[in-house]
Write a structure and sequence with these properties.
single chain, 557 residues, mainly alpha, 3 domains, two-stranded antiparallel sheet, two-stranded antiparallel ribbon, 18 helices, 4 strands, globular, disordered C terminus
């Protein structure tokens, strides 16, 4: 048994599962011939993999009305060819001996022992699912409980492995001795191998799997094999191929199919915006390309008889999307160029500063209208919940970035940074800090950047308070570093800042100091105006100290 087939001591009885595959869709008959030969009035795409008509582009538009019985040009989604029904939401492919050997080597057919798997699945639905409500919880559990080593697995194996992986990123199982990041890494290898060997053919399952992969960060801030930005990009591109960005409209789709597509699309939008907001990279989703109706509360209500919805989870998700609409507009204003933008500038349309002011006003209005469950606690005896805490951290991070160029906003910047740190302290006291989403780690980084900036202020009182806030936040960042390479690198750097030892080995002349004179010149590292070697003039509040984003914050010309 190699290391990928077990999670180490504590994973006493890992289970081998069996999956019965189907044929290879891509090699069965003529897809286009079968597609045009179907009766478009019959059947429901809810039981079949869906095809987005634009995949066939002009061919279908030209030939569909002539050769396709019941073809409707205003409909964009039909059953796929060669019409292979899903089995329990999956279309697994029959593997050859070599492919099967690879998956066995990486433990892809192994599920952790029941106690461990149950714990990670519960952690996923408790701590991750409210941020990614793309799976039917009751249906998943019902099918999972029917799974045993003596029968073929009834859940899509890829989704089962992805759920267990995602749950491992927010909770440390007490029975496992391996470090949490090593446990997650082994689970990721199992799941990713299924993708690389083309085991799963259902594209909706692949979209959801890559979305769940985004909750796992590799051992590098910017790994080229696995990081949040790459996983989300893959999920979104697959969703485009399915036509998930288009309204199902008159397509013959079951209600539950429509509901899942709609929720999945807006989940992709939410995470795409927040990932770009934190990483400073272009978004994959442009809402001008989409006509999917916005989510409403009833879309997130459970459909099973007797099932109760969690109002807090619903409010968190819907209000997060509303916040992302504002952030997305602000990100649009940062686009560096293009003919349309240059023409708009010449025509006297609102410039970047004006758009930012509008976004600030919308942000303030959004915060004023927060639901009671998402508002900050009324007293010191009360606490943030995990969901209200994460949502408020997003708001304060938006405040930090929106106002970063306003010379009169020092008070707002200070208050926003302090609020983020206080929320993290509150969640840490409740032992919830390890369960915050990855964006929360970046937001704490951002707040500590502001503390570091204030610690270099000319006013000694401001500098002392900034240094104190920085030191208060360091233990939290250190704790988060066990699961995040971003937090680990940030902790190392900001600890040096707090101690006055910033990058001493990089200085041309050694810096001699002691505690009372730690604010001496730091040569190439100018914390007061956040200018870095090779990044002169860059506005540091648009990024973490150690992650240089690509936002263009220069003045419009």
């Amino acid at each position: 048994m190699n290391k990928y087939q077990t999670l180490g001591e504590g994973d006493c009885e890992p289970r081998q599962v069996e999956v019965i595959g189907t044929g290879d869709i891509s090699k069965v008959g003529s897809i286009l011939l079968e597609f045009l030969s179907q009766d478009f009035d019959e059947g429901s795409i809810g039981d079949y993999q869906a095809t987005f008509v634009d995949d066939y582009a002009c061919v279908v538009r030209m030939l569909g009305p002539t050769f396709g019985k019941g073809f409707q040009p205003q409909v964009y989604h039909f059953r796929d060819a060669p019409f292979i029904k899903r089995e329990n939401g999956s279309i697994p492919r029959v593997l050859n001996d070599g492919e099967h050997a690879v998956l066995r080597q990486y433990g892809s057919f192994v599920i952790p022992s029941s106690k461990i798997a149950d714990g990670f699945i519960a952690a996923f639905f408790d701590r991750v699912h409210p941020t990614m409500p793309v799976l039917n919880r009751a249906e998943f559990y019902r099918t999972y409980l029917e799974t045993s080593s003596s029968q073929p697995v009834k859940l899509p194996l890829l989704l089962l492995q992805a759920v267990i992986l995602s749950g491992s990123t927010v909770w440390k199982h007490p029975d496992l001795n391996l470090p949490p990041d090593e446990v997650s890494w082994r689970l990721f290898v199992r799941a990713k191998a299924l993708v690389e060997q083309r085991f799963e053919q259902d594209r909706l399952a692949l979209v959801i799997a890559h979305l769940l992969f985004s909750t796992f960060t590799c051992d590098s801030c910017d790994d080229t094999n696995q990081n949040m930005w790459l996983s989300l990009g893959t999920a979104i591109r697959l969703a485009f191929g399915l036509g998930m960005h288009r309204d199902l409209g008159n397509a013959n789709a079951l209600p539950e199919h429509r509901r899942q597509w709609k929720i999945t699309w807006w989940t992709l939008f939410l995470h795409d915006v927040l990932c770009s907001f934190e990483w400073g990279r272009p978004r994959a989703v442009n809402l001008d390309d989409s006509d999917v109706p916005e989510l409403v509360e009833r879309d997130l209500q459970p459909v099973e008889p007797g099932a109760l919805s969690c109002v807090e989870h619903t409010e968190f998700f819907l209000q997060s999307i509303d916040l992302c609409f504002i952030i997305s507009t602000w990100l649009d204003s940062l686009r560096p160029g293009g003919p349309a933008k240059r023409r708009a500038s010449r025509n006297g349309r609102p410039n970047r500063e004006e758009q930012t002011r509008r976004c600030c006003a919308e942000l303030s209005n959004w915060y004023t209208n927060l639901s009671p469950a998402m508002r900050p606690p009324h007293s010191r005896r009360s606490h943030y919940s995990l969901w209200s805490g994460m949502l408020n951290m997003c708001y304060h991070a938006a405040t930090l970035r929106f106002y970063s160029r306003d010379p009169d906003a020092k008070g707002k910047l200070h208050d926003a940074a302090v609020s983020i740190s206080q929320i993290c302290v509150d969640l840490c006291e409740q032992d919830l800090i390890d369960s915050i989403w990855v964006y929360g780690i970046h937001q704490l980084d951002l707040a500590m950047c502001q503390h570091a900036r204030e610690s270099r202020d000319d006013d000694p009182d401001v500098a002392e308070q900034g240094l104190q806030n920085l030191r208060t936040s360091l233990p939290i960042l250190e704790r988060l570093s066990t699961r995040s390479s971003t937090a680990k690198q940030g902790f190392i750097f900001l600890k040096e800042v707090a101690e006055g030892n910033v990058m001493r080995e990089n200085l041309a002349t050694p810096m001699h100091h002691h505690e009372s004179t730690w604010d001496a010149d730091m040569s190439r590292w100018h914390l007061q105006n956040m200018e870095y070697p090779g990044f002169e003039g860059y506005d540091g509040l648009s990024a973490d100290l150690w992650t240089f984003h690509s936002f263009d914050l220069s003045d419009d010309t």
